């Protein structure tokens, strides 16, 4: 007979019980799961899609933004897996790590499977089961309907602080006007003569692109009204009725390792989606994004040398959400932690990406970037909350103010935050305590030196 749990007058089937349950299989969640499972703890990842990697896979967020600071071991284990599929490091030029969505998904899944982690795909978290100030389980919508998964402790790596909000933990969202960062709906285009396009971009005396030599890597961009060399051709397309002014808000593309002739596009910006948690507004914006992709592909084919024979390869299967909800935890990281290069006794991860805001009203807002070797620390206190004792946050939904979130949200940083969350889970189980009671200074020591 199947075990069940009572939930609002009905009995839900219990799919199983785990020591640690991680909500979200993105960069932070997968990293937390890898550390927990590799330590021999019974670990489950609940993932709403059918692919690990989160935004880097499902939203086509490639490549990783550069990071000069050292990282924890999971970052390099992932890099090794990616390198086995196609070289990721752009040495000496952009210092970014480039990858395909498919390579990222396969790399994470192999790492987690080898570590003995359980995966629950195609599962949407619908609610939490509480016992006082502890979470005892998640209600998930799966093919069988509503079911439950039970756990001793939980990591919210959903990106949207979903578990934390369902559990009643205070959270915040948006800038001073309540607007989220602008989201994107990314896409990939194939059939591109990249060398022809590279030559064309530099013939315009472009100063944004840095990859002058023929080879595997290239990126280009245009932000309307910012003096980019590509703007005149975009203006002509607007004049001709092929593009609309909103299409000039942001345009950026990258090559994709292992996919000759393919460029990945970090656009269009969904400029009217200021509240990305509003379900109906989000749905409208997705449709608008698809229409923009059709316009952009038509524009590329007709106006950009090298794109004459191009075609749409794929659209992202999820929005590229840069910011939605952040937990209000034991410590809320302000922007001053960036400008002051903050250090903490319980610093468990490092960040060095600049404050990178795709603002709903102000276009791009950039804080002056660090020099290589500069960094700030992320304290464990920004990952926990006294409101619910057996949960911690990992990834972009940790406890930060709006501007600070715009720095911590990049893939290398959230992988390290995820590893810290996973290690905290191991410590909590070994010591028989809640995640909120884990000593952040001891956690820092256990994580050890940065590689």
Q: What characteristics describe this protein?
A:
451 residues, alpha+beta, eight-stranded mixed β-sheet, 22% strand, globular
Structure characterization notes:
The chain is α+β, with helices and mostly antiparallel strands and 451 residues long. Helix content is 29%, strand content 22%. The protein has twelve helices and 19 strands. Strand 11 (251-255) and strand 12 form a beta hairpin. The longest helix has 25 residues, at 279-303. It is globular, with a radius of gyration of 22 Å. The chain starts with a strand and ends with a helix. The model has no long low-confidence stretch (mean pLDDT 94).
Summarize the SSE layout with pairings.
Layout: E1 4-7, E2 10-23, H1 27-38, E3 43-46, H2 55-58, H3 73-85, H4 101-115, E4 118-120, E5 124-131, E6 134-142, E7 145-156, H5 162-166, E8 171-173, E9 187-190, H6 194-203, E10 219-222, H7 231-239, E11 251-255, E12 263-265, H8 279-303, E13 311-315, E14 325-327, H9 336-339, E15 347-351, E16 356-359, E17 363-366, E18 376-379, E19 391-393, H10 402-408, H11 411-431, H12 440-447
Parallel strand pairs: 2-3, 2-7, 3-4, 7-19
Antiparallel strand pairs: 1-2, 5-6, 6-7, 8-14, 9-12, 9-13, 10-11, 11-12, 15-18, 16-17
Helix pairs in contact: 1-4, 1-11, 3-4, 11-12
């Amino acid at each position: 007979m199947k075990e069940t749990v009572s939930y609002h007058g009905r009995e839900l089937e219990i799919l199983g019980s785990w020591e640690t349950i991680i909500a979200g299989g993105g960069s932070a969640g997968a990293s937390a799961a890898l550390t927990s499972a590799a330590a021999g703890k019974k670990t489950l990842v609940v993932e709403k899609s059918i692919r690990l990697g989160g935004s880097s896979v499902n939203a086509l967020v490639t490549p990783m933004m550069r990071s000069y600071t050292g990282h924890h071991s999971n970052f390099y284990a992932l890099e090794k897996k990616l390198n086995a599929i196609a070289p990721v490091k752009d040495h000496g030029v952009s210092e970014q790590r480039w990858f395909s969505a498919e390579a990222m998904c396969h790399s994470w899944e192999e790492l987690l499977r080898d570590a003995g982690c359980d995966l629950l795909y195609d599962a949407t978290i619908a609610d939490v089961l509480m016992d006082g100030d502890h979470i005892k389980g998640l209600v998930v919508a799966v093919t069988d309907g509503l079911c439950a998964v039970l756990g001793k402790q939980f990591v919210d790596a959903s990106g949207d602080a979903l578990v934390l909000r369902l559990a009643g933990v205070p959270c915040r969202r948006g800038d001073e006007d309540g607007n989220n960062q602008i989201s994107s709906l990314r896409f990939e285009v194939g059939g591109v003569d990249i060398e022809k396009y590279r030559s064309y971009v530099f013939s315009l005396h472009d100063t944004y692109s840095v990859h002058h030599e023929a080879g595997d890597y290239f990126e280009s961009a245009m932000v309307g009204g910012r003096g980019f060399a590509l703007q005149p051709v975009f203006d002509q397309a607007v004049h001709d009725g092929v593009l609309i002014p909103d299409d000039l808000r942001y345009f950026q593309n990258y090559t994709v390792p292992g996919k000759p002739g393919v460029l990945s596009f970090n656009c269009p910006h969904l400029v009217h989606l200021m509240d990305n948690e509003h379900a109906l507004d989000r749905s409208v914006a997705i449709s608008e994004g698809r229409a923009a992709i059709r316009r952009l592909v038509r524009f590329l084919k007709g106006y950009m040398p090298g794109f004459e024979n191009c075609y749409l390869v794929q659209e992202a299967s999820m929005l590229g959400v840069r910011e939605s909800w952040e937990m209000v935890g034991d410590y809320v990281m302000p922007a001053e932690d960036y400008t002051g290069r903050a250090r903490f006794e319980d610093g468990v991860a490092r960040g060095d990406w600049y404050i990178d805001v795709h603002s709903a009203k102000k276009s791009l807002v950039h804080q002056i970037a660090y020099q290589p070797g500069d960094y700030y620390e992320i304290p464990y206190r920004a990952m926990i909350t006294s409101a619910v004792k057996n949960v911690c946050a990992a990834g972009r939904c940790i406890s930060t103010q709006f501007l600070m979130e715009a720095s911590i949200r990049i893939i290398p940083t959230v992988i390290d935050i995820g590893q810290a969350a996973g290690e905290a889970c191991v410590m909590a189980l070994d010591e028989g305590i809640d995640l909120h009671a884990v000593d952040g200074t001891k956690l820092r020591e256990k994580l050890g030196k940065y590689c």
